[in-house]
Amino acid sequence: MGLFGRLRGRRGGGASSGGDRRGTLDRGSVRADLSHLEQFVATRRGVEGYVEPRTAVTETTILLVAADGEWTRRRIDGPDVARKLSRDLAIPVYDAQVTGYPQRMRDWSARQQKRL
Questions:
Q1: Which phi and psi angles does 86 have, rounded to 5°?
Q2: pLDDT value at residue 22
Q3: Of 11, 6, 14, 85, residue with least CA distance to 50
Q4: Spatial contact of 6 and 85, defined as CB atoms under 8 Å apart
Q5: Contact, 46 vs 59, CB < 8 A?
Q6: Residue pLDDT, tens place only, 4-19
């Protein structure tokens, strides 16, 4: 089984394969989400993952933050899948509700706003 198949876990492959959305208003993760996360890690230094819990509006997401504070967020099929992805990509992963977000992420976002 390939990386994408393993990452889908027990629930299936997200919205495109009829995965269980359990009443959220959001779509599930798709292959493009996982590809984006892999590409982000491959092209940046010092990436860390922050798992964000499922809510009534959104599915579980993982926020990746690079050493310079650049960040990206994508849907993922649950916290276990986020942790497995982090192991597969060899990056640390944290629970965003426990640790919060790194200051470098907020600093990077502020710099981007000044550019506009």
A1: -60, -40
A2: 53
A3: 85
A4: no
A5: no
A6: 554 554 444 443 334 4
